[in-house]
Design goal:
The protein contains 13 helices and no strands. It is an all-alpha fold. The chain has one domain. Helix 4 packs across helix 9 and helix 6 crosses helix 8. It is globular, with a radius of gyration of 19 Å. The two termini are about 25 Å apart.
């Protein structure tokens, strides 16, 4: 098996543990405290990577305006996204929150049409319809699955997906060294979540295995997986084929949550996930076919 696929499969496995890991931590630790502490680990990891690779010297070439843009991207794409997603996780089961989280590729299409002036074709419209139909299926009777305020949790996850979709479009326009940008972004997340968290939450001491959860969330899921995915997309392999492996994540996440959290996998959740991911894949295959036709 080519290295690219090994990196991609490892990334998919790591990403599939996000919902279960965060859900376990959020059972005892406030949302923003979890985000602040895990983000410290993410920042430190990226700082070490930049020092080892020599990328840290690239800090000098960016202006105050560039850093302001990176900070804005960090606030929108990872602070707002993560804070809203964690809130959703606290209100819903991990399977519900994870499924809704995978609306972000459809949000990317919507914002691309608005910001990048990319045309919404019939195929794109059908893909969006399939994914939003998945939301309707998931929301039908969601109270039987949710662990808190189901409506607030679902809205929070949907807005989180919109934030990440918008972040992806804006980040695409920005031409920065991604290792440096991610380091700046994570320190912004630390600062924002710490300030807001200390103002609105009663922080609790972190004990024992919770530190392992924080390390896994901050270093492995938020930092290592990012680097593995970047490596997976490099090289001569077909990028579309590798990128499509990411859509195995929510399906695998259901299994991880069932094993770790003892959540029962509901047929309604599986059907909703099929519609949402089906819409994303429809869009993905359309883009691949169009690019192939143009070459």
């Amino acid at each position: 098996m080519k290295k690219n696929y090994i990196y991609a499969i490892l990334t998919v496995f790591i990403w599939s543990t996000l919902a279960a890991t965060a859900k376990m931590l959020l059972a005892d630790i406030p949302n923003l405290q979890t985000l602040a502490v895990s983000s410290i680990f993410s920042f430190v990891f990226m700082l070490v990577i930049n020092i080892i690779t020599g990328s840290i010297r690239g800090l000098k070439k960016y202006s105050i305006k560039d850093y302001a843009i990176m900070a804005g991207l960090g606030f929108l794409g990872l602070f707002m996204y993560s804070a809203l997603y964690y809130y959703g996780l606290a209100q819903l089961t991990s399977q519900e929150a994870c499924i809704l989280n995978y609306l972000w590729p459809i949000m990317l299409v919507i914002f691309s049409s608005i910001i990048l002036k990319e045309k919404i074709t019939v195929t794109k419209a059908l893909a969006m319809f399939c994914s939003f139909l998945g939301i309707i299926i998931l929301s039908t009777g969601s109270g039987s699955l949710a662990t808190g305020n189901a409506a607030a949790g679902m809205i929070s996850c949907i807005v989180a997906a919109a934030c990440y979709g918008l972040f992806s479009v804006l980040n695409k326009k920005a031409d920065y060294n991604q290792n440096i940008a991610m380091m700046v972004i994570w320190i912004v997340v630390v600062i924002c979540s710490a300030i807001l968290g200390l103002m609105t939450e009663e922080w609790k001491p972190i004990e024992g295995i919770q530190w392992l959860g924080m390390l896994w969330l901050g270093v492995v899921i938020d930092a290592v997986a990012y680097l593995l995915w970047a490596l997976a997309l490099k090289g001569d392999e077909n990028t579309a084929k590798i990128a499509n492996l990411a859509y195995l994540t929510p399906f695998l996440s259901l299994v991880v949550s069932a094993i770790v959290l003892k959540e029962q996998i509901k047929m309604r959740a599986v059907i909703a996930l099929i519609f949402i991911v089906g819409g994303i894949l429809l869009q993905s295959f359309y883009d691949y076919a169009r690019k192939k036709k143009c070459t």
